[in-house]
Design brief:
alpha+beta; 7 helices
């Protein structure tokens, strides 16, 4: 909040403890109420239950797995592609003044397309996320500098947690995905790296730690990396990592994952210029590409497709 909105909130430990307890009680109460209402009306609050066929198995199943994935949860389920969606949900605090074209359905479409869902700044742990996303395996959660990172993998994909040193305060939640028939194993992680421009050295240490423990296994990590443009060269040249957005062609229309610039003057007859006043009147106008899906450049026979339809809707 300090980095984005230019303000610092001061709070003593007793106040903080009280607010944490109050928040958790409210979450439990909210879940109970919504569950009761949802049971009687699946469209209450315009919530769309996340029980949809993943993008990787849409259309003819023979085009993806060669098997009917809808009737199989075999651990050897194969995918012809892996769709990874990353979202920083900002502690479930919405923009104070979002563009009018933002809606719940856009987010729902992105989430329902995912084989792997990486969340950052999630205000609760595994128990709640399993209730919300019942089609997914909750691989785990870990604390970052802002709330928690969570990683989910769609049921039917063989996945287990790849434990990193650091326990609840490791820099990522990582899953080991395997396809027995292909004799293929990869690691996929949800990350939330150190914040602020001056956190560059700490971010590099965090990435080094993850890579060291991954060893020879190919690693893909997605999330709020907080990286600045000048850090790309070190990631690419020194560590053999690259943003999937670049490998997919560097489309300028999907470049920024944070955009609080006033675009209303750019409105045309076919396009409405947006203005995300995330912090209200104190919003600082700037663009950045904090959020990335980072892949090893040595990953063989791989094609990338990148979409950032939510690039300003964290």
């Amino acid at each position: 909040y300090e980095e984005v909105c230019g303000q610092t909130n001061t709070i003593n430990i007793n106040q903080k403890l009280f607010l944490v307890i109050l928040f958790r009680c409210c979450i439990v109460a909210l879940v109970v109420v919504v569950s009761i209402l949802w049971w009687n009306n699946p469209f209450i609050m315009n919530v769309v239950p996340f029980h949809n066929t993943p993008a990787s198995s849409q259309g003819s199943s023979s085009e993806t797995n060669g098997t009917d994935k809808s009737n199989s949860t075999d651990a050897s389920t194969q995918l012809s592609r892996l769709t990874i969606v990353s979202m920083n949900i900002a502690g479930s605090v919405p923009s104070k003044d979002p563009p009018s074209n933002w809606n719940q359905e856009i987010a729902g479409q992105a989430i329902r397309s995912a084989d792997v869902l990486a969340l950052q700044e999630f205000p609760a742990g595994v128990t709640l996320v399993e209730e919300i996303f019942s089609d997914y395996q909750a691989i785990g959660a870990t604390h970052a500098h802002a709330d928690q990172m969570v990683l989910l993998v769609r049921k039917g994909i063989a996945a287990k947690r790849f434990v990193l040193d650091g326990g609840d305060y490791s820099p990522a939640v990582v899953a080991e995905l395997s396809w027995a028939e292909r004799k293929q194993t990869i690691l996929v992680g949800s990350v939330h790296l150190a914040p602020f421009r001056e956190g560059s050295a700490e971010r590099e240490r965090q990435v080094d730690k993850i890579l060291k423990q991954a060893g020879s296994l190919p690693l893909i990590f997605a999330g709020d990396t907080n990286m600045r443009v000048e850090e790309d060269e070190r990631m690419e040249a020194d560590k053999g990592l690259q943003d999937a957005w670049k490998l997919a062609g560097s489309d300028p229309n999907t470049k920024y994952t944070w955009d609080t610039v006033d675009h209303t003057a750019e409105s045309t007859s076919t396009k409405s210029g947006s203005f995300n006043r995330y912090c209200g009147d104190t919003t600082r106008q700037y663009t950045a590409r904090y959020d990335e899906c980072t892949v090893p450049t040595r990953l063989p026979s791989t094609k990338y497709n990148h979409s950032s339809s939510l690039q300003t809707n964290r």
